[in-house]
Amino acid sequence: MAPVKSELQSVAWPPAPITTERLVLREPEARDRTAFIELLASPEVGTYVGGAQPRDLLEEKLPQVPGRRTGLFVVELDGAMIGTVTLDQRDADEPRSDLAEVELGYLFLPSSWGRGYAAEACAAALAWFADARPGVPVVLSTQTANTASMRLATKLGFTEVERYEAWGAEQWLALWTSY
C-alpha cells in the first residue's frame, strides 16, 4: 500500500512569489540570514513561543539559507525581510489533530508590529493555500495571553475551537476553512 500524502506534501513548492499591496511572500534566500537571527533572538518575538534563542548559537548553527522548507514564506517589505509566515504539517499527537493537518504560524520583527503586515501576509498565505488545497482546514494555536494574535486570527476568519493547558499556559486553538 502506498503511503498517504499529507496536505503540505501534495502542494507544489516553492510557489511563485506572492505579491500583496505592500508585501512579497517568497522562499528564504541567503540575504535573509541576518533578519532570521534578529527574529529568533528577539526577546519580544519569543515571548509566546518559548523564548528568544541565544544569538551566538544562531550565528553558529543557522544555515547560510535559513528556513528553506515547504510551507515557510519569508515576508518582505521594500526588499527586506520583516518576518515569516508558516504553514506547518501538524503531528498526530498535537491537541485536536483530528481537526486539521496544517497549522498557520507567523513571526514578525518588533519594528514591523502594529502596521497590519501580519494580517496582510497571513491572508495572502491562506489564499494561496486555499487555491492549492481547496476546502482543506487550517488551525492556529496561541497562548490566550497573546491577545494580539487571537485578534488577528479572528480577523482572518479563524473561529475558536477550544482552550487547553500546555507548556505552562492556557492555549487557544482556532479553525479556518476555505470554501
TrEMBL record:
A Pfam cross-reference name: Acetyltransf_3
Annotated signal sequence range: none
Database matches in InterPro entries: Acyl_CoA_acyltransferase (IPR016181), GNAT_dom (IPR000182), N-acetyltransferase (IPR051531)
Domain N-acetyltransferase as annotated: residue spans: 23-179
Gene3D superfamilies referenced in this protein's UniProt entry, alphabetically: 3.40.630.30
Record's protein name: GNAT family N-acetyltransferase
Originating organism: Kribbella karoonensis
